[in-house]
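hiii so um. not sure if this is the right channel but i have a protein structure encoded as tokens and i wanna go backwards to a sequence. like what aa goes where. can anyone help
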């Protein structure tokens, strides 16, 4: 089994996040309308349930093989904030290596 086929699915998630808090006091009549921020995150889908989508952009294998046992940069996105999920890689059972050897020449 190659490294790509042993990974969780790679996804792109579009989601809404709250805006940065405005520091300091403001007069109520001076508060301008605000809206949520559209965000996009890409990573390996480590958790996918009704509560949260958890992405890890980095996986590591401490034994140097394809046995993923570490993750870094993990982000938790509330499921209610998700606008869209796109699967970047096929399901691991159907993944195929299309890269082949590096034989392409560059001008």
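sure thing!! here u go:
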């Amino acid at each position: 089994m190659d490294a790509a086929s042993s990974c969780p699915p790679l996804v792109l998630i579009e989601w809404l996040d709250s805006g940065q808090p405005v520091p300091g006091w403001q007069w109520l009549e001076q508060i301008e309308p605000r809206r949520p921020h559209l965000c996009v995150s890409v990573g390996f889908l480590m958790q996918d349930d009704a509560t949260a989508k958890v992405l890890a952009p980095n996986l590591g294998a401490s034994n140097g093989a394809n046995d993923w046992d570490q993750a870094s940069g993990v982000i938790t996105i509330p499921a209610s904030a998700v606008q869209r999920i796109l699967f970047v890689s096929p399901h691991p059972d159907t993944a195929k290596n299309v890269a082949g050897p590096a034989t392409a020449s560059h001008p």
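oh and The domain at 4-20+33-91 is CATH 2.30.30 (SH3 type barrels.).
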